[in-house]
Amino acid sequence: MDELLPEMYIPDLTLPQALFDLEQDAGNEEAKAKIMAAVEKNGMVPFYTYVCERLGWDADDQLVATLTKANAAKLEAIDADIAEAEKSEGEVEVRAHMERKALALVAMGDRTASLEAIDATMEKTVGSGLKLDLVFLKARLGLFYLDHVLLAGVLPEAADLAEKGGDWERRNRLMAYQAVYNMSIRSFDKSSQLFLDTLATFTSYELAPFATYIRYAVIMGSLQLPRVDLQDKLMQSPDVLSVSKELGAAGDLLHALYECKYAEFFVALAALGDELAKDRYMHEHARFYCREMRIRAYNQILRSYRSVTMESMAAQFGVTAEFIDRELSRFVASGRVHCSIDAVSGTIYTTRSDSKNSLYQQTIKQGDLLLNRVQKLSRVINL
Question: How far is it, in rounded angstroms, from Cα 318 to Cα 312?
C-alpha cells in the first residue's frame, strides 16, 4: 500500500506529535528517544532548538556544534554541485541540485531557509506537476510546525496549480492536505466533505497512516453528516470497514449515534474526548467537538418526541436528571436545542423550528437591505 518516494516523508510529521506527547507527559521516554534520534540523524538543529524552547530543556551545546558543522558541510557540498551544474550542465540538473538543497533544509527543520530554497527552486521549475510537489513540501513544513499562516497561503496556491494542470494523484493529495488543515482550524464542515471525497483514493501516507486518516474521517463525519448518511457513507464504506477494529472510541461513537444507543454514545464520547485532547491537530477543539456532539445527540432524540420526561431522557443517556436539566437549559438559552422545559412537572416539550417562516423572514430582511442600498445608490447617481 505504501509506495511513496522517500522525499515525501520530509519532514517527518510523526515528530511534532512526539513533541506534543512530551508536552503532555514529560516522562515519555519513547517520544524523547524518537525526537533525539531524528535530530541526530537529520541534523535538526533548528527543530532541536524549538523543542528545547517548548519543553524548557537545556540545549546540549556540544551536540548543537557537531550537528551545525555537519550541516554546513552538507550544504556547502550541495552548493558546489549547483555551481558546477550551472557551469557545465543544463537547467534540469541545476534544478535537481536546488531541490536537493531545499529537501535537506526541510529535513533539518529550518523553516525560513527552507522556504527561501523552495521558492528559488520554483523559479527553475517548469510544469504544474513539479511545482505542486514543491508546494506540497511547503505544506508539509506548515503542518510540521502547525503554521496556519503559511498553510493558509500555500494551499490556495496548490489549488491554483492543480486547476492549471495537476494530475489525478496530485489533486487527491491536495484534498487530503486540505482535509487535515481544515480539521486543524475547526472548519469541520469542509474537512468532513474532503475526508469523505478522499477515502477511496487516499495515498498520502506522509500525512498519516491509513487507519488514522480513516479515523479522522469518522470523527468529522459523525459530527457533520445527516444521520441517514452515516450508514451509507461511513458505516458501510469498505475503507472504514477495513480498519473498523482500529477505530476505537470513534467507531463506537459512530455506531452508538446511528443506533440511538445514547448511554453507549456518552461513554464513547468521553473516551474520544480524552483521545482528541492528546492529538496535536484536535486538542484545541476537543471540548468544542464534544459539546457539538452532545447537542447533536440531544436534538436527535428530541425529534422523536413531542414531549418526554426529564427522568426518561436522563435514563436513556445514562446520566442524572439534574445533568440533563443543566445541559438542556444552557443549550436552549443559546438557541442550539429546540425545546422548552417545564421544571415543575419535569417534562421537556419539543419546539420544532418553522423553516419556511424563518426563510420568509430572512428573505424580507435581505430585501429591505437591498432596497436601502438601491436608494442610497440612486441618490448618489442623481447628484
Answer: 10
